[in-house]
Amino acid sequence: AMAAKAGNSVGGVLPHPHVIGNAFAQHYYKILNESPEDVHKFYHDESILGRKPNSDGTLTSITTMRDINKHFVSTYLKGCSMQIDNVDSQPSHEGGVLVLVSGSFTVPDAMKRRFTQSFFLAPQKGGYFVLNDVLRYIPVEPGN
């Protein structure tokens, strides 16, 4: 599993959640940028992605590896430049790690889009997988 890279323990001592969160974020956005067709490998069938707000403001949920893969392959982030501004992590339920990322995507010939994204990294043998993933674009304020 690709997410496992962030979770290698040294001599049975788990790394600090900040170390896990930072390593995960660097790896995740690199793969998202360079090979979107591989991003689904961070997830499992029971994973939930929150994406594209509905008319009532709630996010659409995407689950199963197949649909998650379809989402990433159809999302045109390949070749866009990504900037990660902050990665905040906390230890969470049963050894998991909560990760909050803020930054921006700049698609060629389009404007910069600021985003905030949260992940719950659930432990699995040899590392972690993304159980929950919520992405929200931040509206551009006039004059910014």
Automatic annotation (TrEMBL):
A Pfam family that this protein carries is NTF2
Where are its TM segments located?
A: none
> What CDD domains would the database entry show?
NTF2 (cd00780)
Q: Which GO terms describe its molecular function?
A: mRNA binding
Question: Has UniProt tagged this entry with the keyword RNA-binding?
Answer: yes
Task: Give the matching InterPro entries.
Answer: NTF2-like_dom_sf (IPR032710), NTF2_dom (IPR002075), Nuclear_transport_factor_2_euk (IPR018222), Ras_GTPase_bind_prot (IPR039539)
Entry keyword tRNA processing: no
**UniProt keywords, alphabetically:** RNA-binding
All copies of domain NTF2, residue ranges: 20-137
Q: Which GO terms describe its cellular component?
A: cytosol; ribonucleoprotein complex
Protein name (Swiss-Prot/TrEMBL): NTF2 domain-containing protein
